[in-house]
Each structure stands twice: as C-alpha cells, then as structure tokens.
Design goal:
Blueprint: E1 4-9, H1 13-16, H2 23-27, H3 29-37, E2 44-49, H4 59-63, E3 88-92, H5 98-106, E4 111-117, H6 119-133, E5 138-147, H7 151-163, E6 167-169
Helix pairs in contact: 5-6, 6-7
C-alpha cells in the first residue's frame, strides 16, 4: 500500500497575519483547511518555524530583522483552524528541516505533498531537502495552498521546484 504524507510548512500566525503576514497568506487559509481534511492525522506532518530571544543576532535575523515565531508566543502557534492533529510536528530554527527529510526517508514514504508558507523560503527549502534525502519519494506542491513573500517570488519558487522534478499542482 502506498504511504503518502501531507507536510504543512510553517502555517503560523506570524506568517499569516502577524509580523510577516501577507494578504496572499490570508487568502489560502480555506484551501489549506480543505487540504488538511483530505489526510488522516497519521498522514499529516507539520513544520513550525521556531526562534528564540537571540534571533536578531543570528545570520537569519541580521538579514531579516523582523522578530517572528518566537517560541511559545501566539505568532509562533500554528493557525487555530489548522490545528487538526498531526502525526509529528518538526520545530525548526532555519528554513528547512533535515530532521523532517530524514523522517520521510526513514519511514519509507512513497509520496509527499507540501503546502504552506513561504513558498520561496521554507516550502522550497523543505521540498529540496526531502528530494536530497529521499530522491525516490514522489514530491508535489499544491500551489493553491502556498503563499510566498510576494506573488512574483511564489511563482519563481514554483519554477525552481519544477526544475528539480517536484510536481506542482493547481498552479
């Protein structure tokens, strides 16, 4: 039997309508909630961008000096409507999660679908890490359930993923 997972990437308050929120991120909420309903809890995984008080001294913080996703804050929490239960949530302090990629490889998934925020930063980073760690896993990204920093960067990230043999749906 095929083993397929949905990965919800950084669907957190700060990226939706908080310190780094966008109207595009707000617009995908219904699509993401519908997508989550298509998978059972044991087939849903999530990532959670997680920063601490030293964030502004990190390389990321120096390049993006906007405090966000501080561990334990409201902005760090996964959007309430999307708190539907997950088999595993991977807290990460950087764009991609090597632990997520290794988990997908080690758990022998056949297929993985990614949705979430930001297409051009964390979605693309996680998709490419999964591709590197589990090259035989079929990876897809539902474009209608993703939002980038800007519409242009969203489209550019989708093109980058297409070039790396990641299937893009609903573009």
């Amino acid at each position: 039997m095929m083993k397929k997972a949905l990965v919800l990437v950084d669907f957190q308050n700060d990226f939706i309508d908080g310190s780094l929120g966008t109207k595009e991120a707000q617009a995908i909420i219904p699509n993401v909630i519908e997508k989550l309903s298509q998978y059972s809890k044991e087939n849903r995984l999530a990532t959670q961008d997680t920063h601490f008080e030293d964030y502004l001294t990190t390389q990321e913080g120096k390049n993006l000096p906007v405090t966000h996703c501080q561990n334990g804050t409201f902005g760090w929490e996964i959007r309430k409507e999307a708190q539907v239960g997950f088999a595993k949530i991977f807290e990460k302090t950087t764009f991609g999660s090597r632990t997520l990629a290794e988990f997908i490889r080690d758990e022998n998934y056949d297929e993985v679908e990614l949705v979430g925020i930001c297409t051009d930063i964390c979605v693309v980073s996680n998709a490419l890490l999964i591709k590197a760690y589990a090259p035989e896993v079929k990876i897809s990204v539902d474009a209608s359930c993703c939002a980038g920093v800007s519409p242009e960067k969203h489209l550019a990230a989708l093109e980058t993923m297409r070039s790396c043999q990641i299937e893009i749906t609903n573009a």
